[in-house]
Amino acid sequence: MAEIANPGSDVPPNQTIYINNINEKIKLDELKKSLNAVFSQFGKILEVLAFKTLKHKGQAWVVFEEVSSATNALRQMQGFPFYDKPMRIQYAKTKSDVIAKADGTFVPREKRKRQEEKGNKKRKEQLDANQTAGGVNYAGAYGVAPPLSQIPYMGVKPVVPEAPAAPNNILFVQNLPHEATTLMLSLLFRQYPGFKEVRMVEAKPGIAFVEYENEMHSTVAMNALQNFKMVGDNAMLITYAKK
Fold first, then answer.
1. Taking a C-beta distance cutoff of 8 angstroms, is the pair 70, 15 a contact?
2. Measuring CA to CA, which residue among 103, 83, 60, 75 is closest to residue 13?
3. How far apart are the first and last CA of the chain?
4. pTM of the prediction?
5. Dist CA 149 CA 199 (whole Å)
6. Handedness of CA 64, 67, 68, 71 (dihedral sign)
7. CA of 240: how far to CAs of 1, 60, 107, 193, in Å?
8. What is the pLDDT of residues 60-113, one digit of tens each?
9. For residue 238, what is the enclosing H or E element?
10. What pLDDT shows up at residue 178?
11. Which H or E element spans position 46?
């Protein structure tokens, strides 16, 4: 785990950012997923660290693969209202374990995360099993199939896609991972001007509606987040909602 950098110290830019002033009422699992959803737009995330201990409440670390990703995240998300509290972000004082392992400076600690490694292996095996027809994953990591118009012709007459909806202020978001929540989506889409609300359909997991003040605002958000991956390999498919 990376140590905390003192606000007044001269800490050089690195791959890990330290975040505090986080709402302490948020459950640990939801916090990690939300941080991943919000910060993955800046680059590949290697690890999100947060702990239940009293000493570490209201704090988290996000480890990026590239220093430039951490720098952009720090600059653009400083003071961002995260669960109703402005985030305070700075570079972590020391390297995280994953970075130390990568550059050969890692010193083993007594406690290892074997369960995490097993989970990663299982997810990889599941993804490999889903690969079909030359690497096209029709069902996605969580079984949410893309629109028929995106599936290559495999000898069956394709279904003619319906005409897309005219531009308007409401977006229709598909192919969401099953971990997605209204709060996670709100944190993601509220970064763009004119955001009003997110509505998820309980009976139909994997989809959501996002409303903006006007079609100009909704178009900006759609272009910015098209194919964005919240969790795993599920790339969002965003279109205008039909009215």
1. yes
2. 75
3. 49
4. 0.49
5. 25
6. positive
7. 42, 35, 51, 17
8. 999 999 999 999 999 999 999 988 899 999 998 876 655 655 555 544 554 445
9. strand 237-240
10. 85
11. strand 45-49
